[in-house]
UniProtKB/TrEMBL annotation:
PANTHER family recorded: INOSINE-5'-MONOPHOSPHATE DEHYDROGENASE (PTHR11911:SF111), INOSINE-5-MONOPHOSPHATE DEHYDROGENASE RELATED (PTHR11911)
Lineage: Eukaryota, Viridiplantae, Streptophyta, Embryophyta, Tracheophyta
Active-site residues, Swiss-Prot/TrEMBL: C318, R414
Protein name per the record: Inosine-5'-monophosphate dehydrogenase
GO molecular function: IMP dehydrogenase activity; metal ion binding; nucleotide binding
Assigned protein family: Belongs to the IMPDH/GMPR family.
Enzyme Commission number(s) of this protein: 1.1.1.205
Subcellular location: Cytoplasm
Originating gene: LOC107775294
Length: 499
């Protein structure tokens, strides 16, 4: 009989709001190797993923590159809605047209243009020539940077010297198809065109440097693909009348799930929106939230949500608990909501507060099926925005969607028709350190999560949830001193490297 530690049920019913760092699991029994751990899971009732990772619908986290890379890794990205309907739709369209987990900056010109400086190529190995000089018209040829450098008359019009038979491949080719073709033909670069469109629009450019870089990264798992063979992409919408029109456009672009975005999801507005979505698009998975209590969760489950997003005030940029005095410690919130959702077969997304692989292990072992991350992903190459330097550190901007800056930017698009109102911030604007590509650090993070699962004696999410429910999973609260002991301590200096 195991009477060591507490069961989750006992620990989380004492009137404390615990967060991930407050608790620690006692180890279980290992009878399988690390690579025997399977992290496949469900985002929502009808959507399966091979890794439990979701990119948050925030304007400094998820646009095309993030959505593509997350799906390529086996997770999913939720495209934010702090933009116009057409901008959000075009981010989704672009993500859906990719089969390769990176996107290049594409440069276009018309045949009658001249190229005066190498700067016009920016970082691209070529400039594409189309009838109208933009992406949307027919591809006529290209000028490679090396051909342009050898040109004696730099004033010449592009039509006089462009290559009129550029090598293109369908954008439906996957990474191995493209890399294999490039290697066999010894190509420096190749354009990927969308063959579903009449004009064969160029959607991506792959260079041999890209293929070499990808080959050097950890092997990708099973990508998240829909029935149409395209990457799974989700999107967020609000609960205003105008969000119904927004959703109509997003559905046309083929989104696979919709997140109804709110800090407090148990509202008449959200319930009306869920009813609308369920009635109008019965095959679209709806993720409701955010919720942190049984009462909130039950109300949304009654309306037929296919997934629940859990977390209020736990995010790194959140000030909701300070400003509004509502919310819940994230470990308690995830455990409480998951135990109700599980009875209805509804997967839970643990949203916010993830800053290391241990937090992911905790969220999943407390009943969540996926984790949603903002700050953990915002410093990556795939997040929107460019890097800048702050105190010698390479950083990217990261801001709360309830920050004044984000609300002001989105107010035209999101709060259209609102009468003048006083804006109160529930988030901050900040920056996060450069982390490189998620194609590299997410596979390492998942390996760390697998090690945590192995220590617990859980070979899958299902088995972790079984340990939780059966009371075999034992945990304790860490005192302040235990938390200090659990971290690095007593050293004069050290370097923290995770992989
Ligand atoms: N997870 C978290 O802890 C938090 C997240 N956030 C994020 O910040 C952003 C903004 O969040 P919220 O302010 O909660 O957004 P929200 O859209 O739920 O609410 C904004 C305001 O509009 C009102 N409203 C919504 N629909 C309405 C309708 N149809 N008619 C009239 N009034 C309506 C709400 O009552 C509220 O006052 C979201 O992206 C959210 O995810 C903000 C705070 C906390
Ligand atoms: O109180 C808040 N004010 C905000 O401005 C805000 N913006 C985002 N979010 C929520 O935080 C989550 C991301 O949290 P992390 O950076 O910790 O991953 C996100 O996924 C959201 O749930 C906000 N919460
Ligand atoms: K917070």
């Amino acid at each position: 009989m195991n009477d060591d530690g507490f069961t989750a049920e006992r620990l989380f019913n004492q009137g404390y709001s615990y967060t991930y760092d407050d608790i620690i699991f006692l180890p279980g029994y290992i009878d399988f190797p690390v690579d025997g751990v399977n992290l496949s899971t469900k985002l929502s009732r009808n959507i399966s993923l091979s890794i439990p990772c979701v990119a948050s619908p925030m304007d400094t986290v998820t646009e095309t590159s993030m959505a593509v890379a997350m799906a390529a890794l086996g997770g999913i990205g939720m495209v934010h809605y702090n933009n116009t309907i057409s901008q959000q739709a075009s981010i989704i369209r672009a993500a859906k047209s990719h089969k390769i987990p990176f996107s290049a900056d594409l440069i276009f010109a018309t045949p009658s243009d001249s190229i005066h400086s190498a700067d016009e190529f920016a970082n691209s190995p070529c400039i594409f020539v189309t009838e109208s000089g933009n992406k949307q018209s027919k591809l006529l040829g290209h000028v490679s940077k090396s051909d342009w450098k050898n040109l004696s008359n730099k004033e010449a019009r592009i039509s006089a010297y462009m290559n009129t038979s550029p090598v293109t491949l369908p954008s439906s080719y996957d990474f191995n198809d493209v890399a294999g073709y490039m290697a066999s033909k010894k190509l420096d670069f190749v354009a990927l065109v969308n063959e579903e469109e009449e004009n064969g629009e160029v959607v991506n450019l792959v260079t041999s440097a890209d293929t070499e870089r990808i080959k050097g990264l950890p092997k990708l798992g099973l990508p998240s693909l829909g029935e149409d063979g395209k990457f799974l992409v989700g999107a967020a919408v609000g609960t205003r009348e105008s969000d119904k029109e927004r959703l109509e456009h997003l559905v046309k672009e083929g989104i696979n799930a919709v997140v109804i975005d709110s800090s407090q999801g148990n509202s008449l507005y959200q319930i009306n929106m869920i009813k609308h979505v369920k009635h109008t698009y019965p095959h679209l998975d709806v993720i409701g939230g955010n919720v942190v209590t049984n009462y909130q969760a039950e109300n949304l489950i009654k309306q037929g949500v296919d997934g629940l997003r859990v977390g209020m005030g736990s995010g790194s940029i959140c000030t909701t608990q300070e400003v509004c005095a509502v919310g819940r410690g994230q470990a308690t919130a995830v455990y409480k909501v998951s135990s109700i959702a599980e009875q209805h077969g509804i997967p839970v997304i643990a949203d916010g507060g993830i800053s290391n692989s241990g937090h992911i292990v905790k969220a999943l072992s407390l009943g969540a099926s996926t984790v949603m991350m903002g700050s953990f992903l915002a410093g990556s190459n795939e997040a929107p925005g460019t890097y800048e330097y702050k105190n010698g550190l390479r950083v990217k901007k990261y801001r709360g969607m309830g920050s004044l800056e984000a609300m002001t930017k989105g107010s035209d698009a999101r709060y259209l028709g609102d009468t003048a109102k006083l804006k109160i911030a529930q988030g901050v604007v900040g920056s996060v350190a450069d982390k490189g590509s998620i194609l590299k650090f997410i596979p390492y993070t998942m390996q760390a999560v697998k090690q945590g699962f192995q220590d617990l004696g859980a070979s899958s999410l299902q088995s972790a949830h079984h340990l939780l429910k059966s009371g075999k999973l034992r945990l304790e609260v860490r005192t302040g001193a235990a938390q200090v002991e659990g971290g690095v301590h007593g050293l004069v200096g050290y370097e923290k490297r995770y992989f």
